[in-house]
Amino acid sequence: MTPQPKIYKAQATGWMGSIMEIFHIATLADWSKATKTGRYSTSTLGRTLKQEGFIHASRRDQVQGVLRRYYGAVSEPLIILKINPELLGCEVKEEVVGKETYPHIYGPIPVAAVTQVTALKAGNRVPGVLELWLGDAFKRMGWAVFAMFMALGGARLGAARIPEWGAAIGAIGGLALGALLAWLVVRRKH
Question: What is the 3-state secondary structure (H, E, C) of 144-177?
């Protein structure tokens, strides 16, 4: 039995009513251009949105197969874009290709719709779930430690300047400044 195509508008929801995650394999060079222009418009390796009519995407369970079938011989650095369809502002259609369905994005991808960029490992190997989780966990822990050191520095400075409440005021100020700086750096990277 052939799967039936599904059409998702800008308010895309996946199965079970949650937001559907879709993924796109891109070259690092194409993504770098998109971050400068604010829009990604490469359909697939060597083809543009204008040439193809849509941007090829896949569900999480399809990424490995697509990578193996179509990008196995690619030597340039590849990345995987995780996309929130609700932020696309264009139609996403789940269309039949062979015996499966794949999401196709009918418009350019705004950089803001990309919620995660994952660099592939040597030989364009997809990092494992544990690698991805640990990498993010260590980054979050690093920024938390940074904010705590800012709070400690603020407490010492405040205690030296204001005898009674200086340490508390300095700690709160340092923590707020550390958290703000961490948020700005992380936001700028995404």
Answer: HHHHHHHHHHHHHHHHHHCCCCHHHHHHHHHHHH
Q: State the Cα–Cα distance between residues 23 and 6, nearest whole angstrom.
A: 17
The pTM of this model reads 0.60
**3-class SS shares of the chain: helix, strand, coil, % to 5:** 50, 25, 25
Report the pLDDT value the prediction gives residue 68, as an integer from 0 to 100: 83
Burial class (CB in 10 A: 0-12, 13-18, 19+), 94: buried
Query: What SS3 class is residue 114?
Result: strand
User: Tell me, what DSSP letter sits at residue 78?
Assistant: E
Cβ contacts of 125 within 8 Å, gap of 6 or more: none
Counting Cα atoms < 13 Å in the Cβ hemisphere of 143 gives 16
